[in-house]
Sequence to fold (214 residues):
Amino acid sequence: MREPTFLVLAALLEGPKHGYALLSAVNDLSDGRVNLQVGTLYGALDRLSRSGWVMESGTEIVDGRHRRYFTLTDTGARALAEETARVTARANKAAALLAQHRKGFAL
Amino acid sequence: MREPTFLVLAALLEGPKHGYALLSAVNDLSDGRVNLQVGTLYGALDRLSRSGWVMESGTEIVDGRHRRYFTLTDTGARALAEETARVTARANKAAALLAQHRKGFAL
DNA sequence: TGCTATATATCGGTGTTCTGAATATCGTCG
DNA sequence: CGACGATATTCAGAACACCGATATATAGCA
Fold:
C-alpha cells in the first residue's frame, strides 16, 4: 500500500467524507508533506471501492454542488490496522539498525 | 520510497553486502514477509547508485563466483533515517485514529 | 549426467501514482 | 450581465517501482 492510499484510509477513520474534503484531510494528516492530487484521489477511491475497503455512502447536493460521500468499511479498517502494524514493525527494525550504525561508525 | 527499497537500505546498515546476500538479508529483515525478486533488487541498486545512496565497493571472486559489493553512503543513511521518521509519524497518527475509531468514534 | 545452490543480469508487463487538462455549478465582485 | 474564484469530479497520458520470467556461469553432490 502506498502513502496516498494509506492516508486516504486513515482520513476516513474520522467518518464519511467527500472527495474534496479528503484532499485537505490528507494534507493535514501528513502535516502538509503530502499534497494529494485529485487524479490520485479518485483513482485510489475507485480502486478501494472495487476491493471493498471503502463504500460510496450516498450523494448530497450542497449549494448546487454534487458531493459523493465515501465511508470506510470494516474490511478497510482491518486492512489499515494490519498495514499500520506492519509498517510500525519495519520502522522499529530500521530504527534499531540505524542506532547501531551510528554507534559503530560514529559521526 | 517503497518497501523493497527501504529494506535494501536497512540491510546495508549492517555493512557492505553483495546482491545475493541482500536477497536473504531482506527476507530476514521482513520476517519472511517480503520475498525480494532479483529484478527488483538490481533495479533498486542501479537507481540507488545513480542517486548516490549506495556505492559499489569493489568486486571479489569467491569459489569462482563473482561478487559485486554495495555500501551505504552517508547520504543514503541520512535518507533512510528521514524516511524512517516519516513512516513512524504516519503510523503513529494512524494508530491513534484507529484507537479512536474502535472506541465508537465521532470526532 | 542431472539437480541444486550460488551469483549476477536483463526484459516485458503490471499496478499505483503523478501530471495536467477538461467539465460543471454556485456566489461574488465590478 | 459577465468574469472569476472556489468547490467538485473525471479522464488520458506518462513516470516509476516492482514482479516474474529468463539467461548466464560455477561448484558440489548423487
About this structure: Residues 18-21, 23, 38-39, 42-43, 62-63, 65-68 of chain B lie near DNA strand C (CB under 10 Å from a C1'). Chain B has a mean pLDDT of 94. Residues 18 and 58 of chain B are 10 Å apart (CA to CA).
